[in-house]
Amino acid sequence: MYELTPKLDSYSKEPQYVQLYNYIKQEIDKRMLRPNTKLPSKRKLSWYLNVSQNTVEASYDQLVAEGYIEGIPRKGYFVCEIQPTFSHAEKNSDYIKEKIFKSDVTFDFTQTGVDHHSFPFAVFRKIANDVLKSESNHLLTIGHPQGEFELREEIASYLYESRGVRTAPSQIIVGSGTPTLIQLLFKLLKGSL
Q1: The CATH classification of domain 16-79, taken from the options 3.40.50.9100, 3.10.310.50, 3.20.20.370, 1.10.10.10
Q2: pTM of the predicted model as reported, rounded to 2 decimal places
């Protein structure tokens, strides 16, 4: 069992349960608390830190909710296996380099380009030839400013089936990316403000 020794400031504006939560989370991120490490019981930790059991329980509950630890009935709380965070990755770049560069990568999902080793050129060429026929000249036009109607119909259908949202295709706008859509949203809101 790992002994937790956070320095809790009772005069801080931040509640003690948040201070304890942040301490344990940092210990897990820094890999000081390894996966499957048993944490002290709520009663023992509250006695050791001289805080209420509710403080420890609130911290543990938040850590469970975020997937840092798990509670096993009649056994206690244990640290879960998590991926390192970006802030932790910057501090421990050797650990990340080892994970990235020593692993066998099947597909390259980076945004710097297409993975040319695994790209199916023959399949792409066949699909492009099937789509770009003389009767598909509508593909060369600009299209509707809100996006293709069939796509907006499918999005409306999906929203209703998955989220219960009733919307018409005319209420949906499909854009080329977040910056473009935010710019359009600001233009729409400018008149209403």
Answers
A1: 1.10.10.10
A2: 0.45
